[in-house]
């Protein structure tokens, strides 16, 4: 998974808000296959390898249900190491009677579902980058039906043992209020490259010619407002930059375009034009 290590910039961690931490922990352990790395009364860090965390849960005071037609999380996406891992989790969901959506994106094969609060989750496996098709600088993606018969012909794992240890946060997909200033923020400010424009209401961006590290859409409406601070949904996500030198340059670039950026402990924190909070760390 060379697209999720230096010299690329990629999403390393996502923090989401939930209404009932205990309910969510049960779901993320039993259904999705995480383990708990750390826990307090109101938060938990989840892990697949027992050492690092790619997803955290937070229960705010007086947490509100997810609100529609706002900016924020569309879904976070867990990238599995192999296609056989994807087949294994399909069998696991079937045994539990979990309803899922699915799609063949040409560059990847993906499953879609939502946690008990309506936070969107994608679980996917990439096809080899050598078979991705690029036309005029854009990677070709689609929303074709997933061939489950072919997928389930993959090697069968004897029993479900949870998410593979080397599962990573493959990408995040966000609802935003508009695309022009958003594109400037992510490209001129954060250094991403647009690799696919999906119609007029979505674009996909990456570094290192990945199919996308971040998706951005206005499907909740142009001008959509941010949700309340204590609403279920995205709290923040962390970008891992390849070095402190690159991070300093990104901070400078963000200031140059007038984006907010402040130092907070070992990270710099910025907010995109739609209110999505981003922590900037380096590898």
TrEMBL record:
Pfam family of the protein (one):
Glyoxalase
- Domain of life, per UniProt, equals Bacteria
Name the keywords, alphabetized. Metal-binding
Select a single GO molecular function from the record's annotations and give it: metal ion binding
Q: Where is the VOC domain?
A: 10-126, 168-283
Cited SUPFAM superfamilies:
Glyoxalase/Bleomycin resistance protein/Dihydroxybiphenyl dioxygenase
Which InterPro entries does the record match to this protein?
Answer: Glyas_Bleomycin-R_OHBP_Dase, Glyas_Fos-R_dOase_dom, Glyoxalase_1_CS, VOC_core
Q: Which PANTHER family match?
A: CATECHOL-2,3-DIOXYGENASE (PTHR43279)
Tell me the protein's name. VOC family protein
């Amino acid at each position: 998974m060379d697209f999720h290590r230096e010299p690329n910039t990629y999403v390393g961690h996502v923090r989401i808000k939930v209404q009932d931490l205990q309910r969510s922990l049960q779901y993320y352990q039993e259904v999705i296959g995480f383990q708990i790395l750390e826990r307090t009364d109101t938060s938990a860090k989840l892990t697949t390898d027992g050492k690092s965390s790619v997803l955290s849960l937070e229960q705010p005071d007086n947490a509100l249900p997810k609100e529609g037609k706002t900016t924020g999380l569309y879904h976070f996406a867990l990238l599995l190491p192999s296609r056989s891992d994807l087949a294994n989790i399909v069998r696991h969901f079937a045994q539990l009677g979990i309803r899922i959506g699915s799609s063949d994106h040409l560059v990847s094969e993906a499953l879609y579902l939502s946690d008990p609060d309506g936070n969107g989750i994608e679980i996917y496996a990439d096809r080899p980058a050598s078979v991705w098709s690029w036309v005029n600088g854009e990677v070709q993606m689609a929303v074709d039906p997933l061939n489950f018969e072919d997928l389930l012909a993959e090697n069968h794992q004897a029993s479900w043992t949870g998410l593979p240890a080397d599962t990573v946060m493959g990408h995040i997909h966000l609802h935003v209020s508009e695309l022009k200033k958003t594109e400037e923020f992510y490209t001129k400010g954060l250094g991403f490259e647009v690799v696919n424009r999906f119609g007029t209401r979505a674009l996909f961006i990456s570094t290192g010619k990945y199919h996308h590290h971040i998706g951005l859409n206005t499907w909740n409406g142009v001008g959509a407002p941010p949700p309340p601070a204590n609403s279920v949904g995205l709290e923040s996500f962390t970008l891992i930059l390849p070095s402190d030198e690159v991070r300093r340059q990104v901070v400078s670039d963000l200031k140059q375009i007038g984006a907010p950026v402040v130092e907070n402990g070992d990270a710099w924190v910025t907010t995109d034009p739609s209110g999505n909070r981003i922590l900037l760390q380096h590898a």
